[in-house]
Write the structure tokens for this entry.
Amino acid sequence: MPRSVNAVASKTRRKRILKQAKGFYGKRKNVYTVAKNVLEKGLTYRYVGRKLKKREYRALWIVRINAAVRPEGLTYSEFIYKLNQKGVGLDRKVLADLAMNEPASFKRLVESVK
């Protein structure tokens, strides 16, 4: 009985990997074994990067809120604590946006919390 290799599926699998590796440098884009290894590593970095992005944005929002609250005589932690005590349900993203784009509204918010 002749050997069955299912060349169609193998070629499709390789094409899919090489298509994803398009734009890589050197052998990374056109040698299947190299492309497969590099792509696997790249997909891991992509996953980690999505988590890091969230972390970095939260840190940025905290810095912006802190910078806007300091002239009002509060620290970031005091401000967040007082917001929670008053039951204000604004998240850090919205607070940072208010601090950057609507300083007057943010100042009124800080005064209401004091």
Remarks:
- The chain has a mean pLDDT of 92.
